[in-house]
Specification:
By secondary structure, the protein is α/β, with parallel strands linked by helices. The protein folds into three domains: about 5-100, 3-Layer(aba) Sandwich (Rossmann fold), CATH 3.40.50.720; about 110-305, Mur-like, catalytic domain (UDP-N-acetylmuramoyl-L-alanine:D-glutamate ligase); about 315-455, Mur ligase, C-terminal domain (Protein-Tyrosine Phosphatase, Chain A). The protein contains 15 helices and 21 strands. The protein has helices at about 5-10, 20-35, 45-50, 85-90, 100-105, 120-135, 190-195, 195-210, 225-230, 280-295, 300-305, 335-345, 365-375, 420-430, 445-455, and strands spanning about 10-15, 35-40, 55-60, 70-75, 95, 110-115, 140, 155, 160-165, 180-185, 215-220, 240, 250-255, 260-265, 265-270, 315-320, 325-330, 355-360, 380-385, 410-415, 435-440. Helix 9 (about 225-230) links the parallel strand 11 and strand 12. Helix 2 packs parallel to helix 5 (about 100-105), helix 6 (about 120-135) crosses helix 11 (about 300-305) and helix 10 (about 280-295) packs antiparallel against helix 11 (about 300-305).
């Protein structure tokens, strides 16, 4: 059986774990495509409610699933113990990984995939906004919340182009065969899956170079990308950008005062976006270069990104109270943390304090990077550490947030993990003009939201 968009027509599907960000985004795409869609998750969250508003049916009784044509799962589920997976497997219902279904949809379009250890969601959202506001009616798959699509991450539409995130965490991005491939950076993450940085690098190399017809856009600022390009002959299919002069064919840029300047085709351009951070400006450049290939003039893309909608939990401004500014960011890897905390220090006034409430994400990641976490956090004035957010992992003996303090060279305090207790403590600590960042991929944002109500 060949899995393609024709196979999916007039079918009924079931999403196992429908409330996840990637799965719910796919759900919206399938509903737009005309699939009769059902699903289940342990918790009925806002993502599922958004799906239900579009026609999705939440089913918790296995006996109601006899008429399902296919089921979709992600790498987040345990196949051996998930009762829905086991039910469909025993029944002989076709089971597809989320990435397989996504490709069945997007392979019918001209497509853009965005990969990288960091910046995928922001870059995908920027490209999507340019395509949308250029009236190209794109299909979109985003792995995070953005106001661009009213809080949902996916849609299917009539246009010739589609853009989607390529998630390297489980290796499934190696199935992505897009017309344009964007790579933002390569960093040592998801080593629980890849086992070594060498295997991770080889996977990214395979992602880029196995599709001989793809146009590749990559950032040569990044040591990981430089490494996989070292034995590659540069060709017209590569569009490379960097703030250093690495080869004669690259596009060079500079960043000053939150404005990125670059030259292309002997013309100078300036890019600014309404969120702080040099990393966002670099993502904007990648998006502009991508959309030029699609046929959108650089000037048009720049104008659209001047009003970039932003992405939820990416240096998101949460509010101000009594002169105190609160931001929230999803960063959970040392490299992301370093960039975000540097941005935080640029935002604050001279006499203000930068304060981070950090929640480590996963025991395995803390075990592998606790020294780097401390080093990345040390450029801020005060660090408050929450207990590790497990993300479903079994605790590892001896692995805890306190390990991070071994390499912290700034003021720090361990928090209890009890929301109200911690926020009352923080309320008594903070003062006017402080700039506070809640940081991590778990539920640390709840501390910020509660604190903002107390101040």
């Amino acid at each position: 059986m060949e899995l393609n968009s024709n196979y999916l027509k007039n079918k009924s599907g079931f999403l196992i774990g429908a409330g996840g960000s990637g799965m719910s985004s796919l759900g919206h795409i399938l509903l737009d495509f005309g699939i009769e869609l059902y699903g289940f998750d342990i918790k009925k969250n806002s993502a599922i409610i958004n799906l239900e508003n579009k026609g999705f049916k939440f089913i918790g009784d296995l006996q109601d699933l006899n008429s399902i044509d296919f089921a979709v799962f992600s790498s987040a589920i345990d196949k051996n113990n998930n009762e829905y997976y086991q039910f469909f497997q025993k029944k002989g219902t076709p089971l597809f990984h989320r990435s397989q279904i996504m490709h069945a949809i997007f392979n019918s379009k001209k497509s853009i995939s965005v990969a990288g250890s960091h910046g995928k969601t922001s870059t995908t959202t920027m490209i999507a906004q340019i395509l949308l506001q250029s009236n190209l009616n794109p299909s979109i798959m985003i792995g995070g919340e953005t106001s661009l699509l009213q809080g949902i991450g996916g849609r299917y539409d009539s246009g010739n182009w589609g853009v989607y995130e390529s998630d390297e965490s489980d290796g499934t991005f190696l199935n992505h065969h897009a017309d344009i491939k964007v790579l933002t950076n390569i960093d040592n993450d998801h080593l629980d899956f890849y086992k070594s940085s060498e295997s991770l690098s080889m996977a990214f190399q395979k992602y880029l170079f196995d599709s001989i017809n793809s146009v590749i856009i990559a950032c040569l600022d990044d040591p990981g990308i430089i490494e996989i390009f070292k034995d590659i002959n540069y060709s017209k299919k590569f569009i490379l950008y960097s703030n250093k002069q690495i080869n004669e064919n690259q596009i060079s840029y500079t960043i000053n005062n939150n404005i990125l300047n670059f030259n292309k085709n002997n013309l100078n351009y300036s890019v600014s976006i309404p969120i702080h951070g040099d990393h966002f400006l670099k993502n904007a450049l990648a998006s502009i270069l991508t959309c030029e290939i699609v046929g959108i003039p650089i000037e048009s893309s720049i104008k659209i990104l001047n009003n970039f909608n932003g992405v939820k939990r990416r240096m998101e401004f949460k509010g101000e109270s009594k002169g105190i500014l609160l931001y929230d960011d999803y960063g959970h890897h040392p490299t992301e943390i370093k960039v975000v905390t540097e941005t935080l220090n640029k935002i604050k006034n001279n006499n203000a304090r930068s304060i981070v409430v950090f929640q480590p994400h996963r025991y395995t990641r803390t075990r592998d990077h606790y020294m780097e976490f401390g080093e990345s956090l040390s450029n801020c004035d005060y660090i408050f550490l929450l207990p590790i957010y497990s993300a479903g992992e079994i605790p590892i003996p001896g692995i805890n947030s306190e390990l991070i303090t071994k390499s912290l060279s700034t003021n720090f305090q361990l928090l209890s993990g009890e929301l109200e207790r911690d926020c009352i403590f923080l309320k008594n600590f903070i003062r006017r003009d402080d700039v506070i960042l809640t940081l991590g991929a778990g539920n640390v944002y709840e501390w910020g939201e509660f604190l903002l109500k107390l101040v």
